[in-house]
TrEMBL record:
This is Uncharacterized protein. It comes from Parabacteroides goldsteinii dnLKV18. GO terms for molecular function: polysaccharide transmembrane transporter activity; porin activity. The lineage of its organism: Bacteria, Pseudomonadati, Bacteroidota, Bacteroidia, Bacteroidales. Pfam families: Poly_export, SLBB_2. Residues 144-223 form the SLBB domain.
Length: 260
């Protein structure tokens, strides 16, 4: 009777500690204090890079004055049963970081934020006595990020605005699967001809201070698989079999102790 009690206790403890360990591995932001307000240190604005496609719209109280500075609208149809759609043509930033803007000519835009480019064009229009009251709007047309690895829906995603966080991107991709490593989420980024990769631990609030918490256009998010996933691959098939053999042996031993 005593042996049965000990065996039962061992099994319960094993299940308990396994559950605790598994939970700690998958919970996000474990060190965040609930209801405690934190100052947002990063004031993030997207920087314009080469190959960005920009929509730049100029308006004025007199629409005729603004007309020469605007790209035409292009109509297109997605399918035979759908109505026509319209979109504005964009300005492609060349390899030198410039765009060719109507009347104003070549403008260097690389390294500027949307607001900085807005003010630059507005000032040029006023100083050139072209429009006295210009209203300029700048938007990204090809702000895209990609998510790959152990997520529910890997793929590329086009962002309607110009601000998205790492957590939001993972949410769009269906969150991490049970096989994704929460402590090993990488962001691959290219800047000024250099490629960097920075890994993050989603279980820690330190992620909010990462330079990659706010994603940039063309960032790639990669979620590494954990050991359980690796054990299921064909390369590690023998290791997976060994694990199952060990589990079966343990269960057999416990059963013998209980029913002996």
């Amino acid at each position: 009777m005593f042996k049965k009690y000990v065996a039962y206790l061992v099994v319960c403890m094993a299940v308990f500690f396994t559950a605790c360990t598994s939970t700690k591995k998958i919970i996000y932001l474990q060190d965040v204090v609930p209801l405690k307000q934190q100052e947002i240190e990063q004031k993030y604005e997207v920087i314009i890079h080469g190959d960005d496609l920009l929509a730049i719209m100029v308006n004025s109280r007199d629409p005729e004055l603004a007309l020469p500075f605007n790209m035409p609208m292009v109509s297109y149809q997605l399918g035979s049963n759908t109505g026509g759609q319209q979109r504005v043509l964009g300005y492609l930033v060349d390899t030198n970081g410039n765009i060719d803007f109507p009347i104003l000519g070549e403008i260097h835009v690389e390294g500027l934020t949307r607001m900085q480019l807005t003010e630059l064009i507005k000032n040029k229009l006023i100083e050139g006595d072209l429009i006295k009251d210009p209203i300029v709007t700048v938007q990204f047309l090809n702000f895209k990020i990609s998510v790959m690895g152990e997520v529910g829906r890997p793929g590329s995603f086009t962002i309607s605005g110009d601000r998205i966080t790492l957590l939001e991107a993972l949410s769009m991709a269906g969150d991490l699967t049970i096989y994704g490593r929460r402590d090993r989420v990488g962001v691959i980024r290219e800047n000024n001809g250099k490629r960097t990769i920075l890994f993050h631990d989603l279980r820690s609030a330190d992620i909010f201070n990462s330079p990659c918490y706010y994603l940039q256009q063309n960032d790639i998010v990669y979620v590494e698989p954990n050991k359980a996933k690796s054990g299921q691959s064909s390369i590690n098939q023998n290791n997976s079999i060994g694990v199952w053999v060990s589990v079966i042996s343990l269960l057999t031993t416990i059963a013998v102790l209980i029913f002996k």
